[in-house]
């Protein structure tokens, strides 16, 4: 396991039991609600939430339509919490790369406040392209940092952070990663504390 990935696993295992009340849990709440409000869902959609945490986003999405809800996370404690909360959904301890799903088997992939932890973002997006069905969609929410704060975080903070953070991306960078993998349409916008992406295969 990559060093940053292992740092993320340790960090989230520590806060899993009180995640919702933690500062990070409160911060993530806005991103979860924005995603749940904007994601287009249809009855029977197969949804994969990558770095699903304790399952809150999948719960919100399940309120909108009857979906096949699947979540993966590297934190064993987060997955344990998700399973206890939502026993009718499928949760597994798995990495974001490679995705252990067959070709063209998923309708929607979501990543909420975790993409900046991924040590191989291009590899992950390639995997998204592989496992998504035709016209399948990826939705990502990540922190919205201004240019100066983003530079300081990426250059001086994240390299020494032990919480698993790798990189905060500019809108242009996010678009390039997905276009480089062959996604046909990519939309990115900022809102409040978040940057939100929708990429269609």
Secondary structure elements and pairings:
Layout: H1 3-15, H2 23-38, E1 46-50, H3 56-62, E2 68-73, H4 76-85, E3 90-93, E4 106-112, H5 121-131, E5 132-143, H6 147-157, H7 171-180, E6 185-191, E7 194-200
Helix pairs in contact: 2-3
Summarize the structure.
InterPro entries: Diverse_substrate_MTase (IPR051052), Methyltransf_11 (IPR013216), SAM-dependent_MTases_sf (IPR029063). The chain is of the alpha/beta class.
The percentage of residues in β strands lies in: 15-25%
| Whole-number count of domains | 1
Q: What is the helix fraction of residues, given as a range?
A: 25-40%
Q: How are strands sequenced across the largest beta sheet?
A: 3-2-1-4-5-7-6
End-to-end Cα distance:
29 Å
Q: Identify the quaternary structure here.
A: single chain
How many beta-strand elements?
A: 7
The CATH architecture name reads 3-Layer(aba) Sandwich
In DSSP terms (H or I, runs of 4 or more residues), the helix count works out at 7
Shape: globular
**Could you name the CATH class?**
Alpha Beta
Rounded average pLDDT: 96
| The CATH superfamily title | Vaccinia Virus protein VP39
**Poorly predicted runs:** none
- Largest sheet properties: 7 strands, mixed
H/E element order: HHEHEHEEHEHHEE
CATH topology: Rossmann fold
Rg, rounded, reads: 16 Å
Structural class: alpha/beta
Keywords: Methyltransferase, Transferase
Domain Methyltransferase type: 48-140
GO molecular function: methyltransferase activity
Protein name: Class I SAM-dependent methyltransferase
């Amino acid at each position: 396991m990559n060093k940053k990935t292992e740092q993320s696993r340790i960090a989230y295992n520590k806060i899993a039991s009180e995640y919702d009340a933690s500062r990070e849990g409160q911060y993530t709440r806005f991103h979860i609600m924005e995603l749940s409000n904007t994601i287009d869902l249809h009855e029977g959609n197969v949804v994969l939430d990558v770095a699903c945490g304790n399952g809150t986003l999948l719960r919100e999405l399940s309120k909108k339509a009857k979906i096949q809800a699947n979540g993966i996370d590297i934190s064993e404690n987060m997955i344990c919490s998700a399973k206890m909360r939502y026993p009718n959904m499928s949760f597994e301890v798995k990495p974001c790369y490679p995705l252990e799903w067959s070709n063209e088997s998923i309708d929607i992939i979501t990543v909420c406040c975790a993409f900046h932890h991924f040590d191989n973002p291009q590899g992950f997006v390639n995997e998204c392209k592989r496992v998504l069905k035709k016209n399948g969609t990826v939705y990502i929410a990540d922190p919205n940092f201004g240019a100066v704060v983003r530079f300081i975080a990426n250059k001086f903070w994240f390299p020494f952070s032990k919480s698993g953070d790798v990189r905060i991306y500019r809108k242009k960078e996010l678009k390039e990663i997905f276009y480089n993998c062959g996604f046909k349409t990519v939309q990115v916008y900022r809102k409040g504390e978040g940057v939100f992406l929708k990429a269609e295969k």
